[in-house]
Amino acid sequence: MSRQQNEKLAPKAVILLSGGLDSTTTLAVARSQGFECYCLSFNYGQRLQQELEKAKIIAKLAGASRHLILNVDLNKIGGSALTDNIEVPKGRDLDNHDEIPITYVPARNTIFLSHALAWAEVLEANDIFIGVNAVDYSGYPDCRPEFIKAFTKMANLGTKRGDADQQFKINTPLISMTKGEIIKLGFELDVDYSQTHSCYDPAGQLACGKCDACLLRLQGFADAGVTDPVKYK
Amino acid sequence: MSRQQNEKLAPKAVILLSGGLDSTTTLAVARSQGFECYCLSFNYGQRLQQELEKAKIIAKLAGASRHLILNVDLNKIGGSALTDNIEVPKGRDLDNHDEIPITYVPARNTIFLSHALAWAEVLEANDIFIGVNAVDYSGYPDCRPEFIKAFTKMANLGTKRGDADQQFKINTPLISMTKGEIIKLGFELDVDYSQTHSCYDPAGQLACGKCDACLLRLQGFADAGVTDPVKYK
Fold this sequence. Notes:
Two copies of one chain form a homodimer.
Chain A: H1 2-5, E1 12-16, H2 21-32, E2 36-43, H3 50-61, E3 66-71, H4 74-77, H5 108-123, E4 127-129, H6 145-157, H7 160-163, E5 169-171, H8 179-188, H9 212-224
Parallel strand pairs in A: 1-2, 1-4, 2-3, 4-5
Helix pairs in contact in A: 2-8, 8-9
């Protein structure tokens, strides 16, 4: 195991960082576990370029060794309210898990994790962190534990490093936590949530307070018994 | 099954098309099986931009319904002779399958297939075609049947369409064929190999004849008993 061989060096990890609440907390968890953090963000034609600006600040605050921003052409593929000109739904019933919402971006986590895998292989890192959550999630299939397990198996079969028995691990520290638990954990780890961005449909610097992401976030802060430092309209 | 519901419409398929011999033959196979073909190529900072020009011609000649070229930032990730300024090896022993060559691009097929999956989901296509080959291959782990099987499982767990029981299939018609058999099949399907590009290190329009890709191609044409229409230096 390379971690044992290099006891004096912190092991490297690639952290998928969107600039949202979950990925920012995930980065704090990776740091608290002693990883040297390589943050990876994507410019994917998302309507919210301010997400990327927040991600840059968050990576810097967390002392990341590097923050790589890659362009991916998801807007040319289309099919989502987050990349197309489709209206973001408001006031949706979040308990309805049968329906996959229009904010779902086809195969997004697969594409993001694939890039993280490539970078981890080049960095000689075994660990990838992603802030997926299967409890208070929006009904996205690519946030489920079964998906993460299947991705890990595929990753180890499809890479030079996986083939050489340096097994990749996809770390999902938040996967079984409620939003309230995630926020409590973040406070324990001194996460500055004022820098995080969640809203799918903000007006300038103000979050809408009504889209799935805002509803989940507000409920999470209420459950955690703390005040959300982000401003709402 | 959507194919049965739409008997009069040809089923759609996404075809990964590099402009090389294998992907061009794969496209011909998909056409011969009655698929409406949506070709997908990538601009990934590869040193050989002429590959993409060839791919455009090949998609047009094959009557593809659409040819989408996506940008991916593999050159920012690095780690390969095909994306970095690393010398392409010449005259390598192709029977040495223990060594993964420096032309291996980390997680490339995972990244390419992930984009194909996203597009297939938007197009409502169940089929993806990729020209991987596990016989006369260059020793890349992401060309093996086990990798394709693991990718398929992951794809069906991580997408809305897979979740809705419209199972994705990754078609690999060439996976157990020798290069000679692939070329024979291509001739039967009227593939114009003069438009295909294989060389990793061409001089202008001339192939080098010495890199892994040229050596495999030349041996394949010799085995098939036909003349390679491409010019070598």
